Amino acid sequence: MQKAMIEKAKQLLADGTVNRVIGWKRGEFAYDITPALFENAEELEKDFVFDDFTAANVSKYLVKESRKEGKVLAFLKPCDTYSLNQLTKEHRVDRENIYVIGIPGGPKLDIEKIKAKGITGVLSVKNEDFTLKIETLYGEETMPYYEAVLDKCASCKSKMHVTYDELMGEEGEVLESSRFDMVEKLENMSSQERYDFWRSELSKCIRCNACRNVCPACTCENCVFDNPKSGIDNKAPADSFEENLFHIIRAFHVAGRCTDCGECSRVCPQHIPLHLLNRKFIKDINALYGEYQAGADTTSRAPLNDYTTDDCEASVVHERGVE
Amino acid sequence: MLRISANKLDSLFEAVAAKQTLYIPADRNDGEAEYKKYETGMKLTSRLNTLRSAKDFFFPQTEDIVEFKMDGKKIEINDIRQECEDFVIFGVRACDARSFTILDKVYLSEPVDSFYKNRRDHGTVVTLACDRPAETCFCQTFGIDPTAPEGDCACWSDGSYYYFKANTAKGQTFLDSISDLLEDGDDTAELDKVIAKTKAVMSKLPLAGLSTENFGGDKLDEYFSSDKWTELSESCLGCGTCTFVCPTCQCYDIKDFNTGNGIKRYRCWDSCMYSDFTKMAHGNPRLTQLERFRQRFMHKLVYFPANNNGEFGCVGCGRCLSKCPISMNIVKVMKALEEK
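C-alpha cells for the assembled complex are given below, as produced in the milestone run.
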C-alpha cells in the first residue's frame, strides 16, 4: 500500500493536481512517525511511510494547509474523513483546496501497549498471522497482535470514508462497534464510584494540552484557557477543580462536533481515557436528539444547534440525576 | 562495597521510611512507572524510568510562593516559606541525576532560588545504575555513564544483591543510617558482568552514534537562521508534553490567584511551546510556533552551553522521544541541523 501511495502522490504532483502532500514521515525507530508535508518525489521516496504505526489523524493540519496556495493531497483513513467533513461543515477548511485520497484504516498499533508488556529496547515490529514479532535489544519477543491495537481502533466506528476525491483499496462499511460499552459501565456506577473513577484519571493530568491541541474539533484561534483576558487561563493543574473543569469544559465545547476520532486519548502522555467524556456526550445526544454522527455529512444541522419541538426538556437533567 | 541481599530490599525501604519520607519508582496500573511515597509492600518498578522525571521533587509543577492579605487599605505580606523535611529519593537513574546538576546551575547560582535550595538541601538522591537501556536512551551523548550514576549515593544491582557507594557526605549519612542492614561484599564478579553487559548494549543502541560535536555555545549564528526550522516545527502541536516530561526544562511562570480578600502568588512550570510564553507588556517576542519550537532546542543545544561552560541542557533520558504526540524531538532536530 505504501508503495502505491507514493506512486499515486508522485503522479498527482507531476501532473500538477496538487503541489504538496500531507502524510507521515518515518522516524528513528519502528514507531515514531511524524505527520509531515512532502513536496517532491525525492522526499516521498525517502521518508513517506504508511504502516501499522501511522495512526495520526492529519485532518487538523488541513485547517492551515488548505489556506495556502495550491492544492494539497491528503491521505485520509476512514476516521480521518469524518474529522475533515466536520471541519468543512464548520468552514474551518477550504475543501476545494484539498485532494483527498481515501485509504484503508487500521487497526493501528500502540507502542505504549507493547512497552506496557515489559517489552523494552524495541527495534522492529512485524505482524505475522496476528502475532507481533518484536525485535529488541534483548532478543525477539512476541505478543498477540490485538493486544497492541490502539484503543481508538479497537472500538472502530466505521471503515467507510465519508468524503474523498479518489479511493485506494476497498471501501468499507459503518461498523457495529462496542464504543459505548465503557460509557455504559460508568453510567451504571454509583455517583461516588464514578466520581472516584474520574478523579483518579483526571488527577494525572499535567496540563500539557496535547489532547486539545491534537483535537480536530478544537480549532479556536485563541483558546479561553490560553487567553489571559478570559480570567480562566492556566497552564498548570493548580488545584483539582482546575484539572476536572478543563477537561469537562473542553468536552462540552466539542459536544455534537466531536467525531470520536480518539486522538485525545491516543496522545495523552498520562493515558487518561478522555474519549470517554466525549462518548458520553455522543451517546446522550443519540438518546435525546436521535442518532447523530458528527462528520458523517457536511450539510445536516447539528442536534445541539437545531431546535425542534421533539427536543428533550431541560428537566431530563434532574430526572437522570436521580440515583 | 556495601551491599544488601535483593530479597531484603523491603527491609531497607522500611528502615529508611521509618525515619524520613522515602520515594521510590513504582508501577502504575497502566504499564507506566512513577515516583510514589513508599508504603509497606510497595515494590520497586522493573520499568527503566518513570513517566515524569525526578525534577518534580526539587522543582514541582506548581508551588505557592507568597500570600497577600487585604484588609481595607492595609496589605499584609506573608512569607509562607517553610523549612521542608528531609526526604530520600531512591532509584533515580543516571540521566535524571545529571539533570539536578543542570537545574542547580540555574537555581543555585546567584540569586539563589530559596524554594529550590530548600528542597535540594533536604533531599538525598540515591541513584540506581541502569541494566536495561531502552532504544530511546542517549545519555552517553552527554557524557553520562548509566552504569556509574551520580547522586548522593549510587546503587547497583546484579540481581542477587544491591550494592551501595556514597558519593557525597549526604550519601554517607544515608549509608550510616542503614549500616546495620548492610554487609561487606567484596566479590563483585557478578555485578561486573552485569555492568559489562550493559556497556555492550550501550554501544549497540540505535542512538549510540549521536554526538554533540556540532553543537555548543558558538553555534548561534549557524543554527538560529537555519532553514530547517520550518520543516522541523511544521507539525508541532504546540502542546507542552516535551517540556513537562523533561528533567531539565526549567522555565516557570508566576501567577496570582485572587482569593477574594487577597492574593495567592504561585509559580508553575511554563512551556516555551505555549503561545503566551514570555508574554510581556509589549506583547510576545516569539510570535509563531517556529520561533517557540526553535527556542526549546536552541536553549538546550546552544544557549545553555554558551552560559554554562559548554554543558548541554539535555541528559538524553528519552522521555520526549517516547511522549511527543507527533514524535518530533531533540534527536531529530540535532540530526536535521547537522545535515548540510
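Chain B has two domains: 2-204, 217-338. Chain B touches chain A through 52 residues (CB under 8 Å). Further analysis is deferred to the final report.
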